[in-house]
Amino acid sequence: MTRAIAHPNIALVKYWGKQEKPGNLPATPNLSITLDSLTTQTSIEDYECDEIWLNNTQVQDTKISTFVDTLRKDFDISPIKIDSENNFPTSAGLASSASGFAALMTAINQHANLGMDAELMSQWARQGSASAARSMFGGFVALLPPMWCAQNIAPSSHWPLNTVVAITSKHVKAVASSQGMEQSRLTSPFYKTWVSSSGDDFANATHAIANKDFEQLAVVAELSCLKMHSVMLTSHPTLAYWNSATIECMQVIRQLRDQGTAVFFTVDAGPQVKAICLPSARKTVQGALDKIPNVLETICCAMGEGARIIP
Ligand code: 2P0
């Protein structure tokens, strides 16, 4: 049996929308940090036929089976049992597909002796789920053209940010990201502007990270997040991922920053809020988010490592 672990990542410059080409290529460059406390652990063993188990339940997951079949076009992979477990809510805007496909790719690479390096695994993981390309690496990670394989742009030690995740709902999201992105590309009047302005956001974020400029990173990350949600909200049918606690968390985080606390928010395709902060601000941020009614739980994360094999 072969086991791998990977962490979700949180995008500071978002990916929302795909190119009209094969390969699951994002329409925009994007950038993330990898989180340490949230994990997906995946084990692979030879089996009489393919089976997929997710959180101790057998599932039919076409995204995973399509991914394995795509790998089989290039590599010899015998039937396998895939057993994957998350220590956080699945499909609720916490990037479970990012950690899931990164752990799966890492485990298959080892189990079937595919001999891929991290860059190549990142390109393959991207075909399963584009955000998974980023979870192959730790620290600050960029996913950009022309190769669309992720790359580490700075290690965690460069600027060890903390993330406080506020869980506001544990329900599975109503519209999966791939479907939502396509809806946005086809219907949102803001989609073209979103795509054309993403290069500037990416450049500003990488500049802020290089210079450890918290205020600049806060402004560009919140802008990228809110532009993405503007595109979502103006898609038809509308994609409304927030609930009332999501909005309250965002307001509290804004107030904290106005009062001098080094924190900003980001929200993905789900109702959870991620508060990114300096380690010195973590207690204040967690305390403030814990007080909000309908915040079910908060989880603190430092920056994590990339996907790897474990005993
Ligand atoms: C991100 N999200 O950059 C953005 C922000 C959600 C909102 O990457 O279609 O599950 O499998 O490539 O990777 C979620 O998208 O989508 C995502 P697919 P994925 O983190």
- Helix/strand order: EEEEEEHEHHHEEEHHHHEEHEE
Number of contiguous helices? 9
Structural class: alpha+beta
Label the overall shape: globular
Spatial strand order of the main sheet: 6-5-7-4-1-14
The count of domains is 2
Q: Report the major sheet.
A: 6 strands, mixed
Q: In percent terms, what proportion of residues is strand?
A: 15-25%
Q: Round the mean pLDDT to the nearest integer and report it.
A: 96
Annotated CATH topology of the largest domain: Ribosomal Protein S5, domain 2
| Assembly type | single chain
Task: Tell me what the structure shows.
This protein is 38% helix and 22% strand. With 311 residues, the protein is of the alpha+beta class. It folds into 2 domains: 156 residues, 2-Layer Sandwich (Ribosomal Protein S5, domain 2); 141 residues, Alpha-Beta Plaits. The strands form 3 sheets. Strands 6-5-7-4-1-14 form a 6-stranded mixed β-sheet. Strand 5 and strand 6 form a beta hairpin. The longest helix has 20 residues. It is globular, with a radius of gyration of 19 Å. The termini are close together.
